[in-house]
Amino acid sequence: MHNYLITLFLILPIYLKAQQLADTTYNPPIYSPAYEAGKGPIIFIDEGHHNFHTKDGRYRAFSDLLERDGYRAMA
Q1: What is the mean pLDDT of residues 26-47?
Q2: By the 8 A CB rule, do 53 and 60 touch?
Q3: Backbone angles phi, psi at 65, to 5 degrees
Q4: Whole-number Cα distances in Å, 36 to 29, 33, 61, 63, 75
Q5: What b-and-e string marks burial along 28-42, b requiring 16 or more CB atoms within 10 Å of the CB?
Q6: Fewer Cβ close by (within 10 Å): the C or N end of the chain?
Q7: What's the longest Cα–Cα distance across the chain?
Q8: Residue 22 domain flag
Q9: pTM over 0.85
Q10: CB half-sphere exposure, 4, CA atoms < 13 A
Q11: Domain containing 51: what range?
């Protein structure tokens, strides 16, 4: 029985496909933006070197939040 459980725990992850998804519904209120829309500092998001996260992908909620706070998010 012990060997069966070990085998199960070693093989089971092969059949489970987990993935990270961006939470596109994340939209907290900004009562007092730091800067006027599009007038704040530029924030660069590095998408080079095969990065896993991109401005329009998994970092979308973060870049949207920055832009709503007046920053200029660029890739």
Answers
A1: 92
A2: no
A3: -60, -45
A4: 15, 7, 19, 16, 20
A5: eeeeeeeeeeeebee
A6: N
A7: 65
A8: no
A9: no
A10: 1
A11: 33-75
Tell me if residue 73 falls in helix, strand or coil.
strand
State the Cα–Cα distance between residues 8 and 18, nearest whole angstrom: 18
Residue 68 CB partners (closer than 8 Å, separation 6+): 30, 33
Residues 26/61, Cβ–Cβ less than 8 Å: yes
Length of the chain: 75
Examine residue 70 and state whether it is found in any structural domain, yes or no. yes
Question: What is the spatial distance between Cα 38 and Cα 74, in angstroms, rounded to a whole number?
Answer: 11
Q: What's the mean per-residue pLDDT of the chain? A: 86
Give residues with Cβ within 8 angstroms of 44, minimum separation 6: 74, 75
